[in-house]
Design a protein that fits this description.
Helix content is 78%, strand content 0%. It is mainly alpha-helical and 496 residues long. Helix 13 packs parallel to helix 15 and helix 15 runs antiparallel to helix 16 (330-346).
Length: 496
């Protein structure tokens, strides 16, 4: 049995909650064949806490060879997925596909009138949930079915069906073009997270100039309208336009409120839009709304591992800053750190390197707000050691934060602090992603004097320079996004 097969099966079983495991065992007892060897594999994997400790030696006598073992493992995977399909509410897309299957079965049985009735129900369902790709295939099926059931009516309806077909093609083209715009910008932001990069600016302008994104162009569907606003949300987010970001997120929330059926069809997109709305309330300082959205997200995140993982990745650093600096609450922050870390541990095998990098960085910030600088430094080192070409901005922020954490642990200016800050300063000068605020901080640590009174003057001078830089919205964002740097500076100025 291939290691990858064992690994995938192990992670699939570990993703099941208690009710899903109980349902699977019950289904296996009722419908399973007499050969329950696959249940032995399930129970062995389910009891294991770590993948490295797997031991199938006790089961080997059950199998004639490795191929038979692999076959039973594949059967187990199929049974688990079948069990989950029976438990999870099908999406509108899946339900629409069931309509198609029913129509095809009725046609094979020569029950054409019943097939037409089913087709009409499918069309109403498809229009309600905007399953345009499915409606496209249904148009071809309707043309064929009418030729069998009502040849005369088929001729009369032929042009109407063709017109409907072309309208669907236009709507799908519009949607996929908007999706392409959105994905292009996301890719640029991940690889080049600097709005001042000429390449990013050029891409933004090209997308903005497209006729599809002009205010005069009215989206032809709810999906298209949502995508249009999502695109504006992403642009306002990267350009640090807090008011536009908040207003766009509010518009999306209003659309979902008016069209609640779209929540079922666009489940993942809806949850992501809630996350964006939550982060927009943070940047726009709408604290009451942010609190209510956090509670809603916390509740919704428990729906499945995917939404839970998205929730953890997108809210941790925000809530760390919220409870650490904006509305200081040490007990809530301590509880959040324990909860987030426990839940993140469950998904360690799902996290990509960029995800891990962000997680370590968020952890470091949370510990810093508790002034547990030793743990903060440990997490920053893990962040820096996680190598990936994505999120170079996190790499720079982590290296800068390392200087801050090291200074807190070793307040006396030493050789290591000087050498590390000098190395980072050189790196920033060569980097395409560095910012003036980062250069100021790095230069500050390099020139920091040993005398405490002199240090206070240097902190005051740093504060004045950063205030001037923060007049630029992007520099202000860099200064406030991750950590309360100004609050940290003030603490050292006021220290007796």
């Amino acid at each position: 049995m291939a290691n990858s097969q064992i690994k995938n099966l192990f992670h699939l079983i570990k993703s099941l909650n208690k009710s899903e495991k109980a349902y699977f065992r019950k289904q296996s007892t009722v419908y399973g064949n007499e050969d329950k060897i696959y249940l032995l594999i399930f129970n062995t994997l389910e009891k294991q806490k770590e993948l490295a400790n797997l031991d199938f030696s006790k089961l080997e006598f059950q199998f004639k060879n490795v191929a038979q073992f692999s076959e039973r493992a594949n059967y187990l995977k199929a049974q688990i997925l079948s069990s989950l399909r029976n438990q999870i509410q099908p999406s509108p897309r899946t339900q629409f596909n069931d309509y198609i299957k029913n129509i095809e079965i009725l046609i094979e049985k020569a029950l054409y009138e019943q097939a037409l009735n089913e087709l009409n129900r499918a069309k109403k369902f498809g229009v309600k949930y905007e399953v345009f790709e499915g409606l496209l295939s249904l148009a071809n099926l309707e043309r064929y079915l009418l030729s069998l059931a009502k040849p005369k009516y088929h001729l009369e309806r032929a042009q109407e069906i063709q017109d409907e077909y072309m309208q669907l093609c236009d709507k799908i083209t519009e949607i996929y073009k908007r999706i392409t715009f959105h994905k292009t910008l996301i890719n640029f932001v991940q690889l080049l997270p600097d709005i001042e990069s000429e390449e990013v600016k050029a891409t933004f302008e090209q997308i903005k100039r497209d006729p599809l994104n002009q205010n005069s162009f009215k989206p032809t569907s709810v999906r298209s309208k949502l995508l249009s606003i999502h695109l504006k949300t992403l642009i306002s987010k990267v350009q640090i336009e807090a008011l536009d970001l908040f207003n766009n997120c509010e518009q999306i929330a209003e659309i979902y409120k008016e069209q609640p059926q779209m929540k079922k069809y666009l489940t993942v997109t809806y949850f992501s839009s809630l996350i964006n709305y939550f982060n927009a309330t943070f940047h726009f300082k709408k604290w009451k709304k942010m609190d209510s959205l956090y509670l809603e997200l916390e509740k919704s995140s428990k729906a499945n591992p995917h939404t839970d993982l998205v929730f953890l990745k997108r809210t941790y650093s925000t809530m760390a800053r919220y409870w650490g600096a904006i509305k200081p609450n040490q007990s809530k922050l301590e509880k959040a750190i324990l909860d987030y870390n426990k839940r993140f541990k469950n998904y360690g095998h799902f996290l990509s390197k960029p995800d891990l990098k962000e997680y370590y960085f968020a952890n470091a910030l949370a510990y810093a707000y508790l002034e547990n600088w030793s743990k903060a430094l440990d997490q920053i080192n893990l962040c820096i050691e996680t190598k990936t070409r994505l999120r170079p901005d996190i790499t720079i922020s982590a290296r800068l934060f390392y200087l801050l954490a090291y200074y807190e642990i070793t307040p006396k200016v030493d050789k290591h602090l000087k050498e590390t800050s000098r190395s980072l300063y050189k790196y920033l000068h060569k980097s395409d992603f560095s910012h003036p605020v980062e250069l100021e901080f790095t230069n500050f640590f390099y020139r920091l004097k040993e005398d405490e009174n002199e240090q206070k003057k240097q902190f005051s001078d740093l504060k004045d320079r950063l205030k001037k830089l923060s007049l630029d919205s992007w520099q202000k964002y860099k200064l406030e996004d991750h950590f309360d740097f100004m609050g940290w500076i003030d603490k050292h100025i006021k220290t007796e």
